[in-house]
Amino acid sequence: MTHPLNHLTRAGDGTRDSTTALEANFSDLHPPLTQRQAFIESQRCLYCFDAPCVEACPSDIDIPRFIREIAEDNINGAAQTILEENILGGSCARVCPTEILCEQSCVRNHDAECQPVLIGLLQRHAVDHMHFDGHPFMRAADTGKHIAIVGAGPAGLSCAHRLATYGHRVTIFEAEAKTGGLNEYGIARYKLVDDYAQKEIDFLLEIGGIEIRHGQRLGDNLALDTLQRDYDSVFLGLGLGTSRQLGLTGEHAVGLMPATDYIKELRQTDDLSELPLAKRCVVIGAGNTAIDMAVQMARLGADAVTLVYRRGVESMAATGHEQEIAKANGVRIVTWAQPEQVLLDDTGRVAGMRFARTESRGGALATTGETLDIPADAVFTAIGQAFDAASLSDARAGQLGQEAGKIEVDGNFRTSLAGVFAGGDCIAAGQDLTVQAVQHGKLAAQAIHNEIMAQQEVA
């Protein structure tokens, strides 16, 4: 299949200077704290009783405790406190929107100084500097039970690790060639550098008892009824496998592609200078993926990057922090404009996008009759991910209850099928955050363990 951006020039000119500049543009977005900086920052924490930051943390990390342990120079203790609740605490410290979660709730944020404790950077400091003699988590005695997990993303990995601590054996079935899901394929390259996602996974797997089989896709070469027959329980951490469509003529023209596809390619390449680069590009969307896409195109060397959203700035899903990153990288943000027509040149390639100007009328979005044309060599869509219905195409999977186009679960992450659990982005409830997927996997593992042990007692 021809690459949708093959007509474009490459991001670099092949010179050493060009390659060095690109590498610098994709270095760590937030440099880590030094030991002294971490010590000073940890002493700003008030170690609140009933701390609001803990309430705001989707993974229930005891934040005041780990920060106090940093202040007491007990880095291993701090890391243990974090990882007991969030085994992917290192990546979450890098990609989690702490500015709208724990740090927003920090009492320092509402004090006269209006500056929260830098919880995310402190969490990263603890996990990055831990030095255990052995793996800090031990497997319980083998239970003889074997659980199947579909999807090796944050939810599946978290579930697998917690189940392993209970002494169960786990086999993870993963469609992609590499483990990690969103952390490996979907996060901006400058947020997770130096192959961090894989290093974190290597650490997680040190507990033992977890096998990963790649190239296994539910609804293709993997069937749910087979998993139910061969394993004691099943957890589905399928994520969101497809990009939403614009629904416009010309959507499949050369020069138009989902942002997630390009980000995946960008994260996997060994040579940034070989990536196809649109000198003028448009990104459609308002979430963090749209921001990630726009900023990365700017850092690759695009002359003009325009992010377009159909509503106002106040309605954008991307946090204010992410929007500031975009502006700092020269991204132009256009609001109150929705896609109307893909503009093509004489060869049928993308030449730009026509947008209908919009406004709010009684809370509903309406067009004004005016249009805006933005010339572009490439258009990237980031209008949301959807659950891939093909995953549930086999007869057994098709019996799963669904809600809002996702898998329906109860409060213990049980689906409508006995012995089948689900969590992460593929279930109806949630914010589609990495940290929340980790929490889902952890809680689902507890529910699976409880169910298996209860059945064993009855037997």
Structural notes for this entry:
The chain has 459 residues and is α/β, with parallel strands linked by helices. The chain has three domains: 35-128, Orthogonal Bundle (Fumarate Reductase Iron-sulfur Protein, Chain B, domain 2), CATH 1.10.1060; 146-241 and 387-458, FAD/NAD(P)-binding domain, CATH 3.50.50; 243-385, FAD/NAD(P)-binding domain (3-Layer(bba) Sandwich). It has helices at 16-25, 35-42, 52-56, 63-71, 75-85, 89-95, 102-105, 119-128, 154-165, 182-185, 196-205, 224-230, 259-268, 288-300, 320-328, 434-458; strands spanning 9-10, 146-150, 169-174, 210-214, 233-236, 242-243, 256-258, 276-277, 280-285, 304-308, 332-334, 337-344, 350-361, 364-375, 378-382, 385-386, 402-403, 406-407, 420-422. It has a five-stranded parallel sheet, covered by helices on one side. The protein has a five-stranded parallel sheet with strand order 7-15-9-10-11. A three-stranded antiparallel sheet has the order 12-13-14, with no helix packed on it. A hairpin with a 5-residue loop joins strand 12 (337-344) and strand 13 (350-361). Helix 4 (63-71) crosses helix 8 (119-128), helix 6 (89-95) packs antiparallel against helix 8 and helix 14 (288-300) packs parallel to helix 15 (320-328). It starts with 8 loop residues before the first strand and ends with a helix. The model has no long low-confidence stretch (mean pLDDT 93).
